[in-house]
Design brief:
about 200 residues, alpha+beta, 4-stranded antiparallel β-sheet, 6-stranded antiparallel β-sheet
Amino acid sequence: MPAELVRLLAFTTTADGILDVVDFSGRTLALGFGLDELFPRSVPIAHDGYGNFWVVDVAPGDGDSSPIFFCCHDAPVILFQSATLSDFCEELVRMVEPPHASLLDDVHEDRLHRVWREHPGVVPRAEASASGDPVLRLFAETLDESFEVVDLRIASVGMGFAWGRYGPRAELRRHGMERIFAVGRPERRGLLDRLRRPG
């Protein structure tokens, strides 16, 4: 758990009257959050009441703080929300203080639709495998041509990818604990093939 989160928990675990649930301990939200293949060590800290979560993405080497991502199912996208828990908390306060202009609302209400429609920053596997970045290239070399890749190691608020772009059978991958993700288009199956094989 990032030191920043540990320090906050010494003072409070919840923030009432903002969003649906805010629980910085993650205890009340842990069972409702999925996407373990993308966020294996996450701490879900907030919920909007509609099945969407804000999670602290904890990774080795993060140091004092870890970034927060917004994980949405309608549209099915993952978006970078905040670089630190402090930034996230500042945006929580902005939601309740005039003029109520918060990046939490921007991400929740607007930017997810842009990512779903336009897929900014997502590149084909072939382009990622030709990258001059050895970490990105190494990950791309483990994928086949059905995958698209997005690098969120250095992200701005609202950057992300549509994890549900290719439906429930799409394959989701992450490069270890690096914040580089891939979505694979499922193999097309003909009618006879679908009748023979369940699922």
